[in-house]
Amino acid sequence: MNHSRWAVAGLVAGALVVTSCAGVGSKQDGGGTGSSGSTPSGTLNVMGFSGEDEVAQARIAAFKAAYPSVTVKNNKGDFDAQQFLTAVSSGNAPDVVYMARNLIGTYAAKGAIQPLDDCIKANGIDTGQYREAALNEVRLKDKTYGIPEFYTVTVNLINSTALASAGVPTSDIQTTDWNRLEQTAKKLYKAKNGRPARIGYDSRLPDFFPLWALNNGAELIKPGGAPNLNDPKAVEALTYAIKLVDDQGGWSNFKTFRDTFDIFGEKNQFTQDQLAVMPIENWYLNVLLDSRRNGLKLQSTMFTDRQGKPISTLGGSAWVVPKGAKNVDAACKWAKTLTAVDTWQKAAEARMQTVAKDNTFFTGLFTGNKVADEQIKAKYLKPTGDPGFDQAINNYYASLDVAKSLNPSPAGAEIEAAWKNAVGKALSRTATPQAALDQAQSESKAAFDKASQG
Questions:
Q1: pTM higher than 0.85 for the full model?
Q2: pLDDT at residue 36, rounded to an integer
Q3: Which of 37, 151, 301, 306 has the most CB atoms less than 10 A away?
């Protein structure tokens, strides 16, 4: 899984034209669902799966060993909505596609991907092994459209050096008391010539607006899929998160400074004392491993709601089968194999070989398969010798059972595009948070109503 991105890309531009694919594919797609004992053959065309690291390669190898009669053609690269839609509408659909789970509701509602319930039944896929929150993201109207994998959760990561220089205790890094957090951010913030020189607390707008809404008790998508973007609690949360930005130079200066961060380098924003604290997903720990030799002293706290209860939003991907897929049997077995407990064990073994080669340590493997997660943790997670990393790893594991996904919606992509646009307007002060979210609610409600009629 390719995590080399500052934030999960909003892969919605092409998704918004998914209506052009409504009804794509024949009523009887070729390939069948097969059964657990069937032997697939032919070519399996895979889309959206970079498959470069040792975790991916180990799982691909497991599939090839199990089904040597299948020729895997992996068109490497992250999911591209327009490429996918063009392939499906032209009758050249891939057989299996790897996409972010929050997009599945839109594609399912428009007929671009097919339900996998028969595939699951025929191949004996145990859905009980997957985390329920991940399964919730791939279901729409009592049908399952994806096989989930990976599970990204968020905690606060802390540059201890910055806290020490400002005389701020780790206990002050919390998201329960907004006034206290604002004062802490101000203490940690540094300016030079009126511009940011160190961000105290990065609220991670615009991408983390759903997390701040959840922090204040609001869900941006209601059960059933209707948008809830201008919920008063969501408006209040956005107003506060923007105030954190305004306190630290204002959006233009803040963003300009943040864009200079060498996020994936050894001389990143923590080691260069450009940032004190930010909430970020679990994959970032691996990025930070090499930063220890540049003086990184890491700490961590849980992200909580305003009552002090640990919370996290949830991300991850899933395997889906498009309408028109020609080798559905192989696609189903691919999804089953790549997300099976024994396959994840092989992936963990490969990760540990890399850990030994690089002389680092294991930071966890968060698969979306609860059984696999527990077995891998028990076998491989040991004290690292770095208390800060130990704390962060433990916090990420503790977040797994409290993480909450946005509810699936037939207009999921449109809702995401609407709230991101609204947050952008509010940050740049071209609209108030209330006005921006009111407009976003109106636009996304229209998209939801239209999608629900399909």
A1: yes
A2: 64
A3: 151
Paired strand residues for 281: 154
Per-residue pLDDT tens over the stretch 135-166: 999 999 999 999 999 999 999 999 999 999 99
Q: What's the number of CA atoms in the CB half-sphere (13 Å) around residue 239?
A: 12
Please give the pLDDT value at position 76.
Answer: 83
Q: Could you tell me what percent of the chain has a pLDDT over 90?
A: 87
